[in-house]
Design brief:
Order of helices and strands: HHHHHEEEHEEEEEEHE
Strand content: 25-35%
Helix content: 25-40%
Shape: elongated
Number of helices: 7
Distance between the termini: 37 Å
Length: 213
């Protein structure tokens, strides 16, 4: 029999059970109305990303912990999934700072998100506020020179062939270094949150996103 994926409701119910909270206590702690939580736990209502983020912030837990299943859950079977990453099949997202090419888009519930990024921003002032999201990421410079800004470290410049690995919850930004017109990055974002792709897309807001074919 096919194993059913957990729902938002079952995951929230499991989180509440692990902490031995009543529905009322959970409501008070996370700021979500009791009636709403009851409907969510019974799979009669779902929550937006903003509401899930509110819960994680109010409970002082990472989004990945919010979606953590019980430790007694059996290991998932080998899926034998495979996808060839071709730029012409990528989902392209254009923002003021970057052109993103999300690879292997046909695979759902990925825990690693491979992406090719063309960097347009040439100053941190032009870039704006640093970006935060769940998980970790690895960035490798394919072409050009990238200046990496992070919340708790001084900026660094990476040459082609160099890379950096960071905690993505820390504010970060990648811009073209002085004298460099174009930077091309290979990035891999990873998280225990199986909705990582949706979280990344949420960061882009309503900007255009299309297949490149």
């Amino acid at each position: 029999m096919t194993q059913q994926h957990p729902t938002i409701g079952s995951l929230l119910r499991a989180l509440r059970a692990r902490n031995e909270w009543t529905l009322k206590e959970m409501s008070q702690r996370c700021g979500i109305p009791l009636s709403t939580l009851s409907k969510v736990e019974n799979d009669r209502l779902t929550l937006t990303y903003d509401k899930l983020q509110q819960i994680s912030q109010r409970l002082n837990i990472r989004m990945s912990e919010l979606f953590a299943e019980d430790d007694n859950t059996p290991e998932p079977p080998v899926t034998a999934r495979r996808s060839i990453g071709r730029i012409e099949d990528a989902v392209r997202v254009t923002t003021p700072n970057y052109d993103y090419f999300y690879l292997c888009p046909e695979l759902r519930r990925k825990r690693m998100i491979p992406v090719i990024t063309r960097v347009r921003a040439k100053s941190i002032e032009e870039f704006g506020a640093l970006v935060h999201h769940s998980g970790e990421e690895y960035i490798h410079v394919l072409e050009g020179r990238a200046e990496v800004h992070t919340e708790f470290y001084d900026p660094i410049v990476l040459e082609a062939g160099q890379s950096v690995y960071i905690d993505s919850n820390m504010g970060h930004a990648y811009i073209a270094a002085d004298g460099c017109e174009e930077v091309v990055l290979l990035g891999v974002c990873s998280s225990a949150d199986e909705q990582l792709m949706e979280s990344l897309m949420h960061l882009h807001g309503d900007v255009p996103r299309t297949g490149t074919r």
